[in-house]
Amino acid sequence: MQSARVLIDGPSELVFDYLIPEGMPVVTGCRVRIPLRNRDSTGTVLDIGEPPQTSFRLRAISSLIDPEPLITPHLMKLGKWIADYYVAPLEMVMRSLLPESVRQDTHSEKTRKVVAIKDFPDDETLAKLAKRAPKQHIILTLLKSSGGQMALKDLGGGSVSSSVKSLVKNDYVEMISEAVRRDPDADQEFLESKPLPLNEEQAEALKIITAPGQTKPILLHGVTGSGKTEVYLQAVQHALDEGKTAIVLIPEISLTPQTVQRFKSRFAAMQDQVAVLHSHLSQGERFDEWHRIRNGQARIVIGARSAIFAPLTNLGIIIVDEEHENTYKQETAPRYHGRDIAVLRAHFEKCPVVLGSATPSLESFQNTQSGKYELIRLTARADAQTMPIIRVLDMRIEAQKQKGRIAILSDRLRASMEKKLENGEQIILFLNRRGFARSLQCPPCGHVCECQHCAIPLTYHRTEERLICHMCGYQSITPRKCPSCGDEAIRLQGYGTQKVEEVIQKVFPQARMARIDADTMRRKNALRDTLNKFKAHKIDIIIGTQMIAKGLHFPNVTLVGILNADLGLHVPDFRAGERTFQLLTQVAGRAGRGEMEGEVIVQTFTPHSPSIQYARHHDFDGYAEQELQFRNQFLYPPFAHCALLGTRSTHERRAEFTLENLHKRLSKDCPGQIEIGEVMPSPLAKAHGQFRYQLMLKSTSARALHQHVQRTLAATPPPDDVTIVFDMDCLSFF
Ligand SMILES: Nc1ncnc2c1ncn2[C@@H]1O[C@H](COP(=O)(O)OP(=O)(O)OP(=O)(O)O)[C@@H](O)[C@H]1O
Ligand SMILES: [Zn+2]
Ligand SMILES: [Zn+2]
């Protein structure tokens, strides 16, 4: 007899062995009911093998919950890998693999009542019915003319129920329960779109992607508007033609009705085979979509990050659109990166994976340089439009002109806005505000206080009145004068979107404007409603954070202003330059998508920083080359792995002590490749009533890093009132 290792549902992470009753088809990934102490419980089978040698008698699995395993063997393997790599409890990973609505027994198929002809009466009886019970007669005729059955609801629901009952009693008809799909897009119609004839570059890309035996990951670097999506569509079609299945990952924010529609329209003829997974599905819809995938009805899955766990079998291709997007990284445990998991899953399933972007992440780009990935390029816009002009404005000069006041609008931007408004064109203004970290910059000369060891801006800590480096812990006093030019105007950066709105309102009192940021967009659908108004040109100017940078297509927008590029540039994050380059390039790709030429104005105190200059010249390669050099020199990703270890507690001292204790233990017997930073308060020192401390870890070996942390954490359980956070390959530093 064999036994199964079962991970019990629930927060306590229990794993027990159970005997598998003779004849019960239990395999890895099955959901089972098991006895646990004196009650019944449920769990997931992790492994199957010989019963372990123990002194006590194993109990047996009571029954199978689902007839076949809900988690495919490949997904099971993926789950175990994630638990190891991201140092996350397996139970937690299982929750990501199997959505709540699918795991819980309580959800089930939605059904409807259907009336079907059973024994149709002869003409004589029919004639009698017509006189005696005309309603029954009508129902029978209706049923006959519509192929023998109709939904009770369509026959009139409650108003006909007594007539239907009589018909059932006489065996003329029967009542059937039929499963109906809760289709999130049921109210939409999709007109089939035909594949476009590909241009030369697109055709070459498709050829490489669909080459027989292509299992090397592919980075598709295509400038904005180069027709990447058309390549995806045809690559998916190719997989389907081979009888296989496909996953398309799209960042949650870009997963708009328009993008989904593009896919649904192309595959309109087989619409039932497209499943869409995103966070706005109801539990019931998610349950249905998931089961349609699992039982093979749906062969194309489009979704955000977690759709990478879609239980498809026979995968033919995985596509990750906008692969550089940070939102692919999950912000709560297990903190996996959807793109990296996509590459791994493709490897397990031996299928091609395409990572597409106009601004590839340096991680993916470096993989093409080292030969791990294939690089394909689309260098021109498919719609033959020109790239918009990017103008860079030196705000040091503005600051002098405006004598110490914070310069929000340069003369150039103001003049340009005036002209666009006169022409009835639309404007987007960005205030790229990230996080809470504040750096020190001198307005007259643009100088930013940086850590000499890490080359990232130092962060101002108000409580200590000090500047601290968030990578290594280096500290310095806050200077009164600019270390570079001696001016006393050096100060903390910062003004918010609200301030900008006030200023713009004063300058352009007639313009209709809306502000888009976390504060104004709390209400459900607020973002969608505002964007719709903008589309209908009921708004002239949108002022927003990077929330609006992605996936926008507004033909009437001819001017995009980046108010203070430095806000995104001088944050204590070695990826700040990369993000600024991405933002500028993506934003530039949004302007001038219609008939009119677009203009982008970038205001900055450091006009010569490489990310701004290379973006201005639409030069990704130049940018990547110098940025990779910097990363290599300071041993940052992609040349090493970074991880953040943090503690959170309502007691500040406990959070600090716990992390200091961990620091001590991590430093003991530490493998040589690992560098351990100092314990420090997080830039976001307190959130949700909890104090936060953190330290950074860096290593050239991912395995050495996560194993060392795993061992140390296992040997050092935290006090009850302290929570540990571990973020492997972290993208955010607080
Ligand atoms: N081969 C083609 N012939 C004609 N038009 C094309 C072709 N391929 C794509 N297009 C059109 O070019 C436009 C841009 O294409 P698409 O949106 O696929 O580009 P993209 O690279 O995905 O853009 P982005 O990076 O902005 O998301 C679309 O209107 C699309 O219909
Ligand atoms: Zn440092
Ligand atoms: Zn200065």
Topology:
Layout: E1 3-8, E2 15-19, E3 31-36, E4 39-49, E5 63-64, H1 73-85, H2 90-97, H3 100-103, E6 110-117, H4 123-132, H5 134-145, E7 149-151, H6 152-155, H7 161-169, E8 173-180, H8 200-209, E9 218-222, H9 228-241, E10 245-249, H10 257-266, E11 274-277, H11 283-294, E12 300-303, E13 315-320, H12 338-349, E14 353-357, H13 362-369, E15 374-378, E16 389-394, H14 395-401, H15 411-422, E17 426-430, E18 440-441, E19 459-461, E20 466-468, E21 475-477, E22 491-492, H16 497-507, E23 513-516, H17 526-535, E24 541-544, E25 557-562, H18 565-569, H19 576-590, E26 599-604, H20 610-616, H21 620-633, E27 641-649, H22 652-667, E28 674-676, E29 680-687, E30 690-699, H23 702-715, E31 722-728
Parallel strand pairs: 9-14, 9-15, 10-12, 10-13, 11-12, 13-14, 16-26, 17-24, 17-25, 23-24, 25-26
Antiparallel strand pairs: 1-2, 1-4, 3-4, 3-5, 6-7, 6-8, 18-22, 19-20, 20-21, 27-30, 27-31, 28-30, 29-30
Bound molecules: adenosine-5'-triphosphate and zinc ion (2 copies).
One zinc ion binds near residues 451, 454 and 469.
